[in-house]
# Entry
Amino acid sequence: MRTDRVAVLGAGAWGTALATSFHRAGLDCVLWGRDAETVAAIVESRRNPRYLGDIALPEGMKATTDLDTALAGAGIVVLAVPAQTMRGFLSAIADRTPPDAVFVCVAKGIDRETGRTMSEIIDEIAGRDRSAVLSGPSFAADVASGLPTAVTVAAHDIEAAKALAAALSSRTLRCYASDDLAGVELGGALKNVLAIAAGIVHGRALGASALAALTARGFAELRRFASALGARPETLSGLSGLGDLILTCGSEKSRNFAYGAALARGDDLGGMKLAEGVHTASVAARMAREHGIDAPIVFAVDAILAGRISIDEAMSALMSRPLKTET
Ligand SMILES: NC(=O)C1=CN([C@@H]2O[C@H](COP(=O)(O)OP(=O)(O)OC[C@H]3O[C@@H](n4cnc5c(N)ncnc54)[C@H](OP(=O)(O)O)[C@@H]3O)[C@@H](O)[C@H]2O)C=CC1
Ligand SMILES: O=C(CO)COP(=O)(O)O
# Structure
């Protein structure tokens, strides 16, 4: 695997933050964005005001709107566009990518149309030996600011995951390796749905005890998804599961949490930033029904977002479920 040259595709919050981190780590990294104004701001003013406010980006960081320039010679291609655009985006760029380059998807979601995870999409379009994911508790603003962060990098082959983790780590971004792709991806995608639920609890001022209960019972749902879908439940106790749940179920800096809070307060949702859980909720609920997974919180979020039930009805349904032993 060639790990010295990295292309990061997608100059939103997360792509810009990761490119910043890789540049600081000494990698030869080029950030690609489709929006000329954003790319010009990154190159000329060392800022990405649209997505990262006034956080100062490092000197010498490379950014371009030219895809072929970004991809030339890249051994690692980081995919940092929203999950629901991943299939179309990867299909369009795969042939323009060096044939031995590995794709590292950093989007957190499940494809709504097909129910496939991001790595399954890469497997299908580019091949199994070329797919990897990076996921874990990591706000873009923290990573771009150089604050200490830890994430998991997963690939089908543990040696490939270790090589990627070693290449992408730095003094501020610590990457752990895993070969449980499904577990790492389920954690990242489903915590977004649970963070919306947590935001709803916060927005309705239901109290810290309710928020803790919601987070713990959400974690139980994550583990059930893992067991039913061929992932290792213990992976969900790691960074891309429990770690990300703790982060995003407890902070309005999470866009999913903020979305849930705004929904619960009855605020205008137009113009809110990307909240991947809004798109993942329906496919997660569908998968749970198909696989017989007991996932009351995921079902409730899906039903609220689809307008089938009100927040109050969902709360009272969750609280009046039959009493059971804790599993
Ligand atoms: N922000 C964070 O803290 C973290 C985000 N993530 C995940 O990373 C993924 C991306 O999130 P984030 O960067 O925050 O999102 P943003 O909304 O900040 O940025 C999305 C980026 O994708 C680009 N884009 C959107 N659609 C397309 C398309 N069809 N083709 C090419 N480019 C496209 C946008 O371009 P344009 O500006 O031109 O619209 C923009 O540059 C999500 O899945 C998210 O869950 C993971 C960890 C942390
Ligand atoms: O995934 C994230 C942090 O790990 C970012 O969460 P939000 O997309 O909810 O902001």
